[in-house]
Amino acid sequence: MANSHAPHPYYPPHVAVQGYAPNTLSVVALVAAFAGVIAAFLVFTLALARRLSPGLKRRRAEQAAFCWFVLCGFLHCFFEGYFVLNHAQIPGSQDLFAQLWKEYALSDSRYVTSDPFMLAIEVLTAIVWGPLSFLVAIYIAAAAATTANTRTRLQRHVLQAAVCVGHVYGVALYYGTCHFAERMRGVSYSRPETLYYWVYYAGLNAPWAVVPALLHYQSVKALTHVDGGAAKKEQ
Amino acid sequence: MANSHAPHPYYPPHVAVQGYAPNTLSVVALVAAFAGVIAAFLVFTLALARRLSPGLKRRRAEQAAFCWFVLCGFLHCFFEGYFVLNHAQIPGSQDLFAQLWKEYALSDSRYVTSDPFMLAIEVLTAIVWGPLSFLVAIYIAAAAATTANTRTRLQRHVLQAAVCVGHVYGVALYYGTCHFAERMRGVSYSRPETLYYWVYYAGLNAPWAVVPALLHYQSVKALTHVDGGAAKKEQ
């Protein structure tokens, strides 16, 4: 491990990063490896789901939703779970996930400083939203089965709605804390270059504002759909 | 305004609080005034709701839920909205809400330091969860009306479920950020006395972990209730 006063590329420049060691892999290699792992995981889980729930095959939108929640589950449980377990060692580590976090942290140094807000939100993401994302994916597959009953479909949307609210709220707080750190404290956690600020920080998180909003709307429609005027008893 | 280096009672002791001026009202007077304002608001809104939606009168649990969301709406829009608009002036101000915030901040100094996390979460609470809490209260009253249709009842529970997820997630992050600030930075935002740590910090926020969990369960039951085996079409 390098010593704690080694120079580092993170913002703000004076921030203390313990034991920083520069990445050994190129950005292209890191992104390719990560994309490969994720693609393999998605291909495998989607194939498994289509096999176990053949009804899924005919429903493109549902397959896309399934893949979205599997992606969320993977990132939350494994990638963000890695951060939760190893945050203090990340700056000096060289395994794939550590190098990916060091690269991403160029756009948000809180990931290499054991920031209390990052830890709080990532712990909840890894242990609550990650498993629930996988559960939604399972429910999507189950609800697409030809034998699926109405209750399964409703449960899927109740669960999907909850995860979507969590995602939108979480990403709003993620952007919000950065905004107010800059406005109130003059602290920017991101390097100013377009790649870091706009592509990593703004761009990579934006899907968690957009996709969950769309999926929440889908769930709201499904949950408030009243069938042919039949009175549904209030519980 | 006192100068920015005036001594103050907040934790950690070295934290900078701009322009602190001690409260002019006693704690008993502050709590009595706040409780009085809230009670008056609840009595008025509940009476109005019972008048407009007589069906509410016979439903004690629904009246309690109505009052809960009106309480949330009041606190989010007005009390927390006050913080959002006036956070920088609170330490030196003497109006009722400023004095209440100065008293509460003995258990969490982030409310007198324009903390970026507090600002991010309180802005969202004031402009999203506050109005939505009032909207849930309106839906509860509307759904209790004898003429209410099924769709209104379902919409109420979809909205209630979303607000409840927001509440539970928000309070988890509130406690979580304090926990990790203490664990990673050795920083406690609360004075150590029982009144501040256990009554204000732990106690006053705990209802937002418990009540929304119960109300979310109510909504889940209502939304996944399948009427007499009738098949409900997936949208």
From TrEMBL, chains A, B:
Residues 61-216 form the EXPERA domain. Signal peptide: none annotated. Belongs to the EBP family. GO terms for molecular function: C-8 sterol isomerase activity; cholestenol delta-isomerase activity; steroid Delta-isomerase activity. The keyword Disulfide bond does not apply. It is a multi-pass membrane protein. GO terms for cellular component: endoplasmic reticulum; membrane. Keywords: Isomerase, Lipid biosynthesis, Lipid metabolism, Membrane, Steroid biosynthesis, Steroid metabolism, Sterol biosynthesis, Sterol metabolism, Transmembrane, Transmembrane helix. It is found in: Membrane. This is Emopamil-binding protein. The chain crosses the membrane at residues 20-44, 65-85, 117-145, 157-175, 195-215. InterPro entries: EBP, EXPERA.
